[in-house]
Amino acid sequence: MKLLRYSTLLAVAILFATYDAKSQEEAAGFLFFGGDISARSGKSYFPMVKMDKRKIYIDEGTRVRKVSASAPCRSQLKTRVSNRFVEALELDFGTSSMANLRRSSDAIAEMQLAETQSEIAISDLQREERASGVSRDSQIAEVKTRNEEFQEEMRRSYDEGNYELSELADTIFVKGRFLPNADINGAYCVVVVVSQRKDFASREVIGRVQSGRAKYLGDLRQGEVFDFKLRCAVSEFDLHSAQYELHLYDETGSQIATSVSRGLKALTEEQYAQFKSSLGGG
Questions:
Q1: Where are the alpha helices (DSSP H) in the chain?
Q2: How far apart are CA 168 and CA 103, in angstroms?
């Protein structure tokens, strides 16, 4: 078994390096680097078996169970083969940061709270003044001054964007158009972003991090353009080093080759049969 594995890997490497890809129409199949997907359940990740409209199915070893369709996912590149192919006529990635919006909203809420607390404190001082007949003007002026200074500092920080980290995002928007060469029932995709992990105090790179989400698409029909828009909430990532992946699957969890698959190579019938036998796929 070990010899077969090494021979297969060597053949894959040679094919990726030397094979002059034929046209999609002539190809009997495709070899590519796909995604070995796992989804989170609790604090652990388990192999993802498939997905439907409502749930992700994971293999816990002793059983297959359902988890939320919004469960975090991650991917490990793995050599795949498929005789089905989808042309990505359009595939655009956009990003935004809900965390930035929350930080800005929190700053505004803090300003409003300080304003309310100042008004309450002044009202209390005025009530004491009326009750005692002793002037509280200096104390009232001090409360007003502290509030005005705080409001000015917060407004300046807000205007300068200090509550927004422009290099970070936590939401990915995908807009695409697919054209499949075969029917694909119950199609779903997994969108993954891989980026550098930084220490934001020292700005040093301390590793790499990835985050992903699975999204159900539905039935794709041969020769029919399929338009889709996706929104994927992921962990915060560094925009400047971000690399995006999109992996496509059918209702059984079999991966489909796409024009954006990494290392995509068209195969002859003989090559397809060889790699299907050693790698599996369809």
A1: 2-18, 98-132, 137-159, 269-279
A2: 13
Distance CA 95, CA 72 (A): 17
Would you mind telling me the total number of residues written for the chain in this entry?
282
Neighbours of 216 (CB within 10 A): 17
Cα separations (Å) of 224 from 87, 221, 244, 256?
11, 6, 25, 16
pLDDT tens sequence across 144-202: 888 787 777 777 766 656 556 667 888 999 999 999 999 999 999 999 999 877 665 56
d(CA 24, CA 144): 73
Q: What are phi and psi of 31, to 5 degrees?
A: -105, 140
Q: What are the CA-CA distances from residue 156 to residues 61, 117, 162 (Å)?
A: 55, 21, 9
Assess contact for 48 and 101: CB atoms under 8 A.
no
Instruction: Report the percentage of the chain scoring pLDDT > 90.
Output: 52
- Which pTM does this prediction carry? 0.72
